[in-house]
Design a protein that fits this description.
Distance between the termini: 40 Å
Strand content: over 45%
Structural class: mainly beta
Radius of gyration: 13 Å
Order of helices and strands: EEEEEEEEEHEE
Helix content: under 10%
Oligomer: single chain
Number of helices: 1
Largest sheet: 7 strands, mixed
Shape: globular
Length: 126
């Protein structure tokens, strides 16, 4: 089992930045991909970004490309999501997730996750 705890959410004005963190504990030696997702009120959860085991492979939803950066520090068992130029419509609960499955495609990184955190609220005011 892997336990994930997100932090770093909060209230920010439109155009501002936040950095989310995802601390992992437990059986992290089997972790391959790490991803970030978000769910706004009344909407389905959507993929935001993912990073491969060594940090060299990253994937982003089109809506966040050029503004968000995903990274991970395996020595600290922590993942990050740097979010810049935030928009009010990006107000949501942000979740991190990890996968014990090796992925080589975007679809795999977008869908294949085994463990989820409880989420952190991000509110972007206009």
């Amino acid at each position: 089992q892997v336990h994930l705890v997100e932090s770093g959410g909060g209230l920010v004005q439109a155009g501002g930045s936040l950095r989310l963190s995802c601390a992992a504990s437990g059986r992290t030696s089997r972790t391959y991909g790490m991803g970030w997702f978000r769910q706004a009120p009344g909407k389905e959860r959507e993929f935001v970004a993912a990073v491969g085991r060594n940090g060299g492979t990253t994937w982003y939803a089109d809506s966040v490309k050029g503004r968000f950066t995903i990274s991970r520090d395996n020595a600290k068992n922590t993942g990050y999501l740097q979010m810049n130029s935030l928009k009010p419509e990006e107000t949501a609960v942000y979740y991190c997730a990890t996968s014990d499955t090796y992925c080589s495609t975007y679809e795999c990184y977008r869908q294949r996750y085994d463990y989820w955190g409880q989420g952190t609220q991000v509110t972007v005011s206009s």
